[in-house]
Amino acid sequence: MKKLLSIIMTLVIILSITACSSSDDTNDLPDNGDLGTEEILEPDDSEDVDEPTEQITLRLAELHAEDYPTTLANYEFARLVEERSNGRIKIDVYAGGQLGDEKAVIEQLQFGGIDFARVSLAPFAEFSRDLNALMMPYLYRDADHMWNVLNGEIGQELLESVYDAGFIGLCWYDGGARNFYTSTEVNSLEDLSGLKIRVQENQLMFSLIEHLGASPVSVPMGDIYTAVQTGVIEGAENNWPTYESFSQYEVAPYFVLDGHTRVPEILAASKSSLESKLSDEDIQMIIECAKETQEFQIQKWNEREEASREIVENAGTITVELSQEELQKFSDAVQPIYEMSPYNEYEEIVSKIRDVQ
């Protein structure tokens, strides 16, 4: 009996110890809603992880100096693109002809060596001949007439005309009226006769000079000063800010207000570059940003034109204002160009331009 009682007491003690042990283990379990199972948390590969976005850097070529109206518009364009893309797309502006002259820049732009360029319409028209219609001599009544053309259906169609040549036309910038400036005084059409005048590399501009009785000469923009100084040429033609910014007034002090052409500037992109680097949505955003800078550039242009004229006149430039009768002689002298090939092909566009109010 004592032996049986001893066995029973031993069993009770063992059971008590086991129960206490189980209670302690339960209290050590994590409070995860499943007291009987310890859960091991693994990373969820299905969750999206934000990868860092690589910045795309593009290059824009500009012939003019840092403070020139088109250059200021370039920087505004770059700012808008970076802002709208949240810093994903950055445009570096290379002013002062760092990436080459206009002809070299356009060639690089066509093949994607440069992403953007602001160039004059004259050399660009070699890739889309219809652009010559915008530069026909003595075509516009005034600046407002030109902008009504450029911001309308005609201007948009001509921007799009460069696409097949490898470019994306983004927007127009103001280049003002182009006038003659010479080393000898010019007060009439007869005074211009025989003078060697620098013009852009464009057949229309060559024809213009020839019909006015002068001799067209091709000289790079940066060499005009020396060419006039050494007698290689006796003048050139351009707008007030270019005349002033390149100090050409120092060697060609007579500025003749004939306003023979209004040649707008064009901001263009490389089709191959943008389409290989950016989405359609990005390209559309870039086009919108470019168009937004147009009014900015026009304002800067007007301010600079006024300031440039003041600078050169204070430096001794003689501004020659032709009479209406004399201006009509200039205009009449170039009318045969409108009948020449290939310019007679632009008869329909020219007629539409003249009809724009």
From TrEMBL:
Keyword Signal: yes
Region called Disordered, residue ranges: 24-50
Acidic residues: bias regions: 36-50
Signal peptide annotation: 1-21
Keywords per UniProt: Receptor, Signal
Single GO BP term: transmembrane transport
Annotated transmembrane regions: none
CDD domains: PBP2_TRAP_SBP_like_3 (cd13671)
Assigned GO CC terms: outer membrane-bounded periplasmic space
GO molecular function per UniProt: carbohydrate binding
Pfam family, one: DctP
Protein name per its UniProtKB record: Tripartite ATP-independent transporter DctP family solute receptor
Species whose genome carries this gene: Natranaerovirga hydrolytica
